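Comment thread on ticket #2218

A.B. wrote:
> Attaching the input chain for the structure job we discussed in standup.
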Amino acid sequence: FITALAVDEEASIAFAAFQYQTTGTAGFLEKFFMRDGQITVHGQLSLSLISVAGIATAEVVSALGVDSPGRVLYATFTGTKRLRIAAFLLTEIHSVVPALADQRGGTVIEVKGSGFSQLTNATTGAPLYPIYCSFGGLTATAGPVEATNITFTSVFCPITQVDNTSSSVESCDGQPVDVSVYGMTGTAFTGGTAAASSRRQTTGGVSLSVTNRGYFTYSGIAVRRVQSARIESVSPDRGGLAGGTVITLYGQGFTESATALCKFFSNNPRATEVLYAPMRFVNPTVAECTQPRAEFASLEESFIDVTLDGQMYTEAGPVNYEIVGVPANLSSPEVSAIVARPQSAVSVQVSIVDDQRHRLGRLDTENRTICLIPNITEDLCQEGLFTWREEGDGYPWPPCRNNTLVLS
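C.D. wrote:
> Ran it. Output below, let me know if you need it in another format.
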């Protein structure tokens, strides 16, 4: 049967205390979500038995009360020879985005949950405490960081750098994420039957006590810490304006991530276009992405880079990748000079290029006809070289000319 009931109207949550009719059986607290006219159970916390004169006696929750501005649930316990009051934090964490972050630190984490209300002075309305995020719990080397962009359901915090001793553990098990709306106060209280401020309990994501580093939640939510990926090469290394080119990236440290991106950019100060595409994980040494449509051909030099958490890109740096524009010109040596002979074999390499002089190569699907126009530019008389000359052969007259053929 229910012994007490309280409603957190701001979060649309109800709390109920239940007690068994059976003697010597501990009761429990339950949390309910109230959404769209429906009530659903979200979590449960079992209460404890208290030893009274050697007999296990159940505590009974006689009253519940919600301090909405302070984000605290208070409960009074009876049933023994003493009255006890316990306080439970109502700040809770449901998830974090991104779910992984670079070990170098600096990734801004969105912490989603409920009860992220900044406490204010009742008279002046001024904030009493900053809201803090803690990454790594009590064992973390770096201290908590102040949150920004605070709403009732989310806060944003830059994640701290991982030290070398804990990086292997946190890349596998994840790094705990906690939040305090009471700043960095050192006072601690406990909820339920926690005997020390370092003991923490949860009920379906609800934090029920705090740490001795302040009123921090304990949600069981963690962010995985990963090393930066490394790109060694890509194939192909160019694509067209229309996009759709599937690019294979070869390197190290690729991992599956919903926030992984490929970035197409140029460091040229005239560049105005930066493009992004989801990165697809294949295995730790291979990944793929599809080049998006571009408005402009890339400027020299242009690159492709990768981020696993959507924010921090490769530590080793990007590799070259060109987005090629439409055919605009020919690229070849300006002058190819040879001495005229009865039969002169001329080797000329010609490329189709765009307006940024990127070679189109396979991206140019048209058949091209290239015309070479010979020119006579030099006149040195060596008669023995020109016994083959005939009148009207197309070369300048008289035949005693050392003519250099120039293709332009």
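A.B. wrote:
> Thanks. Noting for the ticket: Helices lie at 167-172.
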